[in-house]
Amino acid sequence: MRVPLITGNWKMNTMVSEAIELSNEMRSGLDEIDGVDKVICPPFISLATVYKLIKGSSIKLGAQNMYFESKGAFTGEISPIMLAELCQFVIIGHSERRQYFGESGEIINKKVKAALKVGLKPILCIGEKLEDNEAARTEKVVIRQLELALAGVGNLTGLVIAYEPIWAIGTGRAATGEEANEIIGLIRCNLAKLYSKEATRSLQILYGGSVTAANSGEFIKQPEIDGALVGGASLDANQFLSIVRQTAEIKG
Ligand code: PGA
Whose C-alpha lies nearest to ligand 1, atom 9? Predict the structure, then answer.
């Protein structure tokens, strides 16, 4: 009953010309695949251009970050209402934002609320460091991140969660399908204590971290995993298409 979702996070990798090329390469192939939500998240500077290129297609647009205020003297920042003109999704709390830009649980909470307020769907990222994983603290860490990010968020409508173990991001060392399925199941169980069972049952929860066309099936076939947040492999149109196609076959 949950529609699978594959999101491509292009990170700080595409020039505008490359974003145009990549969108054009993916558009018709992605349009041929039904039963999967497809989201691409180019850098801010390419959003308006890519928006025009994918208009009328089945591809949805997402941003990689945003500020929580709606307007004003915040030099260099992009607001939720600006994004809502073009995007349906926004990645919030990615571990790279937490690690390199000092985003705290409190800031992430403000961003989640601000996105929901303007109808943007936050793809809220949570995940543990290697040392937490090795010390069997994964559940504790991700549940704490969720509690902070969702403080005061009354319901789960419009929210997507991405479980991304930090040690698996960009390292080529993905979690196993079973490991990711277990943690995502625990996330769902814990959320069911705070929100209605129905709401947690319909919440899309993704796995992210070194997902490729070669290993995506291992994640997608897991019952608790509703799709993937794909970084590096989403920069290759053929790989991204293959991941989406496999998702449609496995979940369809
Ligand atoms: P990766 O990145 O697929 O390159 O590991 C995933 C992410 O950071 O969302």
Answer: 231
